[in-house]
Amino acid sequence: MNVVAKNISLPSKPRTFGFFVDGEWRAGKEFFDRSSPAHNVPVTRIPRCTREDLDDAVAAARHAFENGSWSGLPSSERAAVLLKVAGLLRERRDDIAYWEVLENGKPISQAKGEIDHCIACFEMAAGAARLLHGDTFNNLGEGLFGMVLREPIGVVGLITPWNFPFMILCERAPFILASGCTLVVKPAEVTSATTLLLAEVLADAGLPKGVFNVVTGTGRTVGQAMTEHQDIDMLSFTGSTGVGKSCIHAAADSNLKKLGLELGV
């Protein structure tokens, strides 16, 4: 098979990606070579990042959070950026679906349908950003007034799986961003391309540098380091139950970070 869909040819050589830290692309030193499972053709070269690369990404996310370049914006301004992302994804739908198909092997019609869902997630998150609010109450007596403030957690780590790399990313990242948090993402090493493309789209939409960072690598190296990292405030992981259990232990042994786990076999 030499075409993915009508008028879409397979790449003549693998596309080499960098990884994304503090608003800049960095070149890899070692790479994963990915062949399309549907076509048996080399399609991407993804950097094999190190713990030091992760430390740089977390530091960038922490600095971006603390300086208020995103967390300090009015929710209406964050919403505007997320809506712009949705528009750019709509424009780049075919390109993103193309790389999802090459790395993952799913039908292109399914990939395009998933991207439509991702666009809707960014649009929904834009609305959610405007709806975030605290509470006030006056049941403490005449001398007291109660107030609850809702604030972003801080730096969030996001580890996504190979099977729905873009959809699961977009079911989480827009809402994390809507709340004012900053992100460090580690996609599965065999399906990293579309996560890196989202970093490009977010930058084009005006997301401040350091707010969204992508570090590619193995779960044993980068993923494990994320679960243990003292400066990641929350971790979202989608994957196996066994690895989920290790996330719980690592979080307890480090900084008691909050966890969001979606686990399977």
Brief digest:
This protein is of the alpha/beta class and 265 residues long. The protein has 9 helices and 14 strands. The strands form 5 sheets. Strands 12-11-10-13-14 form a 5-stranded parallel sheet, sandwiched between helices. Strands 3-7-6 form a 3-stranded mixed sheet, covered by helices on one side. Strands 1-2 form a two-stranded antiparallel sheet.
Defining traits:
9 helices, three-stranded mixed beta sheet, 265 residues
Approximate strand percentage: 15-25%
Overall shape: globular
Q: By helix and strand content, what is the structural category?
A: alpha/beta
What separation lies between the terminal Cα atoms?
A: 33 Å
- Which ranges are low-confidence, i.e. pLDDT below 50, for 5 or more consecutive residues? 1-7
Q: How many β-strand runs? A: 14
Q: Give the radius of gyration.
A: 19 Å
Strand neighbour order, sheet with most strands: 12-11-10-13-14
What's the helical proportion of residues?
40-55%
Could you give a short account of the major beta sheet?
A: 5 strands, parallel
Total number of helices? 9
